[in-house]
Amino acid sequence: MTARTPVRTTVLLGLCAAALAFGAGGWLMASDHKDGPITGAHPPIDIADLYAFRSPTDPDNLVLVMDVRGFIPPSEAASTRFDPRLLYQFLIDVDGDAVEDGVIQAQAVGTGADQVVRFRGVAPPRMTGNAHQVLPAVAATVPVTTTGAAEVATGGGLRVFAGVRDDPFFFDFARFQQIRQEKAQSFRVPGMDTFAGTNVLSLVVEFPIALLGGGGPELGVWASVGMQGLVEERGHAHPQPDSLDATDVYDQVDRMGWPGVAVFFIPKPMTPAYNRLAPAADAANYRDEIVQTIVQEYRQPLAEAQELAAMLTPDILPIDVSRPTGFPNGRLLGDDVVNVVLTKLFQGNPGLMEDNVASNDKAFLSTFPYVAPPHTP
Amino acid sequence: MKRAWIGAVAVALALGLGGGAALSRADDTQSRRADGRIAELSGSIGFLERRLREDPENFVAASHLVGRYLLRFQLGADLADVERAERVARALLATTPDRAGALAQLSNVHLTQHAFAAALQTAQAAVHADSTSEAALASLFDAAMASGQYDQAQSALRQLGGESVPGRLRVAQWQIAQGEGEGAYANLERTCDALQRAAAAPQTVAWCLTELAGLRFEHDGERAARALYRKALHLQPGYRGAVEGLADLAHARGDWARAQRLYASVATDAHPDLYLRLGEVTRALGEEARAVRYDSVFLSVAAAPGAEPLYAHPLALFYARSPATLDQALGVARRDVQRRPAVESYDLLAWVLYRRGKMREALEMSDRARGWGSPSTTMDYHRAMILDALGRGATADSLRTQALARPELLDPHLRIRAGADLRNVR
Questions:
Q1: Which of residues 288-307 of A touch B (CB under 8 A)?
Q2: For the stretch A167-192, what's the b/e string if a residue is b when 16 or more beta carbons lie within 10 angstroms of its beta carbon?
Q3: Would the CB atoms of A4 and B57 count as touching at under 8 Å?
Q4: Cα of B424 to nearest chain A Cα, Å
Q5: Which residues of A touch B374 (CB under 8 A)?
Q6: Within an 8 Å CB–CB cutoff, is residue A115 touching chain B?
Q7: How far is CA B88 from the centre of its chain?
Q8: Taking CB atoms and an 8 Å limit, are B198 and A84 in contact across chains?
């Protein structure tokens, strides 16, 4: 790229290649995918889904699953890795104040075939809110699984997994968007799972509920991704590549509790700020916006909209561990959360209350890490 | 135009002009080593095509598919992939909720096809659809820069900003055009570093390092640049841009045999200018008959019906070599300026006019080329030749001396010619 070279396709395509890795790339959207410029521009940041359920093998244990980087084709399962610059976190509120009392952190080390993920916690956070610091002690380190058998590690009371898995989310998202654009009036019969056959990067952790040290049994769970050295620009946050080690504080760039709040209910221009804020102030900041969206876009009565908005703020997934789990008490891998949401959004319109995709395209495992093996070529 | 453009390749193949490919095949080890990544991309493409056949509304698959086609073209240089990308990108517009992003993708495809007007128009539509879309702003910058619409490019860059990776890449490109090499190098180096640290695809990192190597060559010389090209090839074996970069380094230092071997390993109908390079180095090695064959292969691809917009620059330079084809060169260069009034196009026209003996108009075009940004070494040398012919020897000498201080930075078509000048200057 010397000064004033004629346009060469290599240069332009390089920009496309970089775009695919870091921006201007394709749509990556599951229940929460690509819900803001920074997350869409940087797929490894983007939280696709969060699941929380009591362990099917030991009801005294809690299982948390965070999926990031959706829509990985089978042939790329072997080469996809976590971004080592990011801090992935499960955050748990045990006393109902919408502030995290315990966190579990995951950070990748290495960029190639030897990549591992270090898990820390469960422990009280060093900071609360939308900025966090890494906990001092590593509980367990696990090699990243790509196409082989799931590698699992234990330590500090945690059982952990990190790697490429089948995307457990199922939704006729393509038709939903046609409906949203008023290009279609109803879901298809049968529906088409937009995410069938694709993979995600999964972080799975199982631990004794007792490790939370009291509180509960009504817990609140959410996931976040943090990044160092962010700078503000055009109202959005961007990583500043040359200052990554300047601070040990990770600023939140994405979060998720309930499935799809940022995608379905938060107006697009507001999603960057939404993703960067802690949930404690959601009711004050976003409840009215959510009510407006439900009334105006989904044409639901005000009372129903207010009820739904109250449930979704703060954007924290509730789970009462004294009861059997299943959405909306936590979220199981196989829960058809889409139909629950559609039923609330399109009451009285049978063609819109179900997407007619009833289950995932792969069977889940009955034992840890529960998420199904990846689709491979 | 598109049909004719693809047709050009088909015609070349039908006429047996795969001769160039045949010549290169024996020494094609570098390209073969990209097979692993190409197979991976082909697997993804097959999967995404199937998903799209099953559900034509699946805009997520379609958007990914466009990107994968372009990535495979970067490695495999099969123009059919660009055609496929265009087809899917157009269909995507009917299904996607992200119209700005889809238009930006289509603009990228048009730019790859050197359909500059379409690229610019589509990028403008993307920004109109969503003026905050990073993808849209980036595509507008790219299309505007390539089309010589520098005010639009600057405006898009201002909105895009320089902190995100796509933004930083564009800032670097702008700095290069402004002659701010050190700033561009710093931006690009940080971007490459960020890509590596983020576990980005090796192909993406290889692209970044290859671009960085070009700048490193200007600032730190061949050795530093070669190390970066080799690092790129280590990360992404067979990465064509890096092989071409190594070939250019060999060409610049006059190592014709090595340049010949490297160019031959990446020469393909999608990049026929490499056939021209092969002709040059083969001729320099004294193999005239073989050089003529390379020239012939180049011409059959670049001058095929409808191919001119894609290959105008190398085609004009090729025609400008011989007095017998100077009028053809002039026609190509004039049409190029009409299609794309960018500084590179004006400089090309200035050079062809000089070769044609139209010195006053040549100077006027040189003035236009230098009317924006910072002139390259090649532009300085072109202008020196024009001024010399106009009897303005003192100014010409000054410019020529300046250009010949780093003759390796001249474009390849001038390097051999400048050799004699260099001896005179010294």
A1: none
A2: bbbbbbbbbbbbbeeeebebbbeebb
A3: no
A4: 26
A5: 3-4
A6: yes
A7: 24
A8: yes
Which residues lie below 8 Å from residue A8, measured CB to CB, with a gap of 6+? none
What span, in angstroms and rounded, lies between the C-alpha atoms of B408 and B4? Answer: 36
pLDDT tens over chain B, length 426 residues: 232 333 333 222 222 223 333 333 333 444 456 888 999 999 999 999 999 999 999 999 999 999 999 999 988 889 999 999 999 999 999 999 999 999 999 999 999 998 999 999 999 999 999 998 889 999 999 999 999 999 999 999 999 887 777 888 899 999 999 989 899 999 899 888 888 888 888 888 999 999 999 999 988 999 999 999 999 999 999 999 999 999 999 999 999 999 999 999 999 898 899 999 999 999 999 999 999 999 999 999 999 999 998 899 999 999 999 999 999 999 999 999 999 999 999 999 999 999 999 999 999 999 999 999 999 999 999 999 999 999 999 999 999 999 988 888 998 888 776 666 655 544
What lies within 8 Å, CB to CB, of B416 at 6+ separation is B280, B284
> Which site among A7, A31, A117, A225 would you substitute to test the B interface, given the most B Cβ atoms closer than 10 Å to its Cβ?
A7
Distance of CA A361 to the CA centre of its chain: 19
Of B337, B415, B351, residue with least CA distance to B383: B351
The torsion angle over the Cα atoms of residues A281, A287, A290 and A296, rounded to 10 degrees, is -150
Which residue does chain B place closest to A86, by CA atoms? B198
Say how many CA atoms lie within 13 Å of A338 toward its Cβ. Answer: 27
What are the E-state strand segments in chain A? 47-54, 61-72, 86-93, 102-109, 116-123, 131-133, 138-143, 153-155, 158-166, 199-208, 218-227, 230-233, 236-239, 249-256, 317-320
SS3 B131: coil
Q: How far apart (Å, rounded) are the C-alpha atoms in residues A4 and B344?
A: 6
**Residue of A11, A17, A42 with shortest CB distance to B203:** A17
Tell me if A118 sits within 8 A of A233, measured CB to CB: no
- Helix, strand or coil for residue B267? coil
Distances (CA, A) of B288 to B204, B252, B285, B294, B317: 39, 20, 8, 10, 19
Consecutive H or E run containing B320: none
Report yes or no: A160 and A142 within 8 Å, Cβ to Cβ. Answer: yes
**What are φ and ψ of residue A250, in 5° steps?**
-105, 120
What ipTM was estimated for this complex?
0.88
B45: region left, alpha or beta (phi > 0 left; psi from -120 to 50 alpha): alpha
Strand partners, A109: A116
Residues 46-85 of B with CB under 8 A from A: 46-48, 51, 54-55, 57-61, 63-64, 66-67, 70-71, 73-74
Is residue A111 within 8 A of residue B197, CB to CB? The reply is yes
Tell me phi and psi for residue B164, to 5 degrees. -70, 160
Residues of B in contact with A167 (CB under 8 A): none
The B residues from 353 to 372 touching A (CB cutoff 8 Å) are none
SS3 at position A271: helix
Residue of A75, A79, A166 to mutate, interface with B, max B Cβ within 10 Å = A75
Number of C-beta neighbours around residue A228 at 10 A? 18
Residues of B in contact with A23 (CB under 8 A): 134-135, 138, 164-166
